[in-house]
Design brief:
Layout (H helix, E strand, L loop, with lengths): L1 E10 L5 H11 L3 E6 L5 E7 L1 H11 L7 E10 L7 E3 L1
Parallel strand pairs: 2-5
Antiparallel strand pairs: 1-3, 1-4, 2-3
């Protein structure tokens, strides 16, 4: 198990990024949360198997079709043992 914090920059709010993240998290069996930030970014904390997290973070680099991702920052974090993936 691994924990990753992800911050996504670009045109990523109001384009179904959070909902699409929820669907991808379910597809890859990932737990955590996603939220919009006041600065216009999307912030995600996720936990899961490394291979699944790699697939999820790769998806974050493009996001849903309606999004324009300019930059993605990733950092490992402490495990929080999330029980599900939620949108905040």
């Amino acid at each position: 198990m691994k924990h990753v914090n992800i911050k996504i920059f670009g045109d990523v709010q109001g384009v179904f990024f959070r909902y699409s993240s929820l669907l991808k998290a379910k597809e890859f069996n990932i737990k955590g949360f996603v939220r919009n930030e006041p600065d216009g970014t999307v912030y995600i904390e996720v936990e899961g198997e490394e291979e699944n997290l790699d697939k999820f973070t790769q998806w974050c680099r493009s996001g849903p079709q309606s999004a324009t991702v300019k930059k993605v920052e990733e950092a490992e974090g402490e495990l929080k043992n999330f029980e599900s993936f939620i949108t905040l």
